[in-house]
C-alpha cells in the first residue's frame, strides 16, 4: 500500500491490494473545496478490478468488482478537472 500527493499539480495516487476478506469499500477523503474547486476525476487501474462512487462531496468510495482477483494491486488516481 502506498499513497502520494503532489501539491503542485493536486495529483493524488493511492495503491492497495484487494483483500477478499473485507466486505466494505475503501474510503478516500478528498479536499474538494480546497484542492478541487472545479471538480475532480477519478481513475482506477486496472479498470476491471474496482469501481468508485461518491455519495458525499468529500468522500470517494472504491469497491472491488466481481472480476477483481484476490490481492490484486489497484491504483486509484484523483486529479483536478
Account of the 3D structure:
This protein has one domain: Sandwich (Immunoglobulin-like), CATH 2.60.40.1180. A hairpin with a 4-residue loop joins strand 1 and strand 2 (11-17). It is mainly β and 81 residues long. It has one helix at 32-35, and strands spanning 2-6, 11-17, 26-29, 40-45, 50-56, 59-64, 73-80. The protein is 5% helix and 53% strand. It starts with a strand and ends with a strand. It contains 1 helix and 7 strands; from the N terminus they run βββαββββ. The strands form 2 sheets. A 4-stranded antiparallel β-sheet has the order 1-2-7-4, with no helix packed on it. Strands 3-6-5 form a 3-stranded antiparallel β-sheet, with no helix packed on it. 9% of the residues are buried.
How would you summarize what this structure contains?
This protein is mainly β and 81 residues long. The chain has one helix at 32-35; strands at residues 2-6, 11-17, 26-29, 40-45, 50-56, 59-64, 73-80.
Amino acid at each position: 500500500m502506498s499513497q502520494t500527493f503532489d501539491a503542485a499539480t493536486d495529483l493524488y495516487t493511492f495503491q492497495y491490494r484487494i483483500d477478499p476478506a473485507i466486505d466494505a469499500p475503501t474510503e478516500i477523503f478528498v479536499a474538494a473545496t480546497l484542492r478541487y474547486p472545479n471538480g475532480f476525476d477519478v481513475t482506477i487501474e486496472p479498470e476491471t478490478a474496482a469501481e468508485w462512487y461518491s455519495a458525499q462531496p468529500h468522500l470517494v468510495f472504491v469497491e472491488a468488482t466481481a472480476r477483481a482477483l484476490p490481492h490484486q494491486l489497484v491504483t486509484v488516481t484523483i486529479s483536478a478537472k
